[in-house]
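Sanity check. The docking grid for zinc ion depends on where the pocket ends up, so I'm generating a full predicted complex first rather than guessing from homology. Inputs follow.
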Amino acid sequence: MFAKLRGRRAYDAVDAVLISHLHADHFLDLVPYSYALTYGPRRERAAGDPVRPVLHAPAGARETFRRVVGAWGTEDLVENAFDLQEYEPGDVLQIGPLTIRFRVVPHYVRTHAVDIVSSLGGGRFTFGADCAPNDELCAFAQGTDLLFVEATLPEPEPFEPRGHMTAGEAGEHGRRAAARRLVLTHFSQRHPTVEPFLEEARAIHADAVAARDLARIALPIRSSG
Ligand SMILES: [Zn+2]
Ligand SMILES: [Zn+2]
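Predicted complex below; grid placement will be based on this.
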């Protein structure tokens, strides 16, 4: 993902990175990103004033990153490349005009749904992270404009505790949260097309779209009054 993002935006022009939970598919690209910030040519240009984006990650992240990178190299790579700040679920973050809140959702490790509003207006965005079906996300996201919900599974897991959702369950969360637009995400690469997932969700929430890497998704326009 870091390689793809580089084609869209200069990595040293990013103000902040936010991590919802400490599963490898959600943070491993911080490793190439850290190498780029530490050793890339842009670092020389910024000599004396190195670019150090803020990295907001769940409590315990510093230790996890040290263990992962320490397997082959200098364990403080990530915390040196970024300004690492660990958050707790009750924290409220301010990143420029953005106010960010969290809600713990059920998954295999401590996982945070993330709600973002801007003081510049323009709507509200809620990211469900990875989670099993739950009430917390529906309450947390109530009335949001754009709700991202994972649609990992073709069928519900046959075991407890569950940790992911089907597209139908994602649609159900979009409906219960009264989200204006639902975005399905976290598809498995083994599915050749996301169309069946989209159809399943749209049967429950009409305004559902599928996320793709680097896609730009518009917030639905609010009619005034
Ligand atoms: Zn996960
Ligand atoms: Zn995941």
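Relevant for the grid: The chain has two domains: 1-87, 89-225.
Also worth noting: Strands lie at 16-18, 54-58, 83-87, 93-95, 98-105, 111-118, 124-127, 146-150, 181-185, 208-210.
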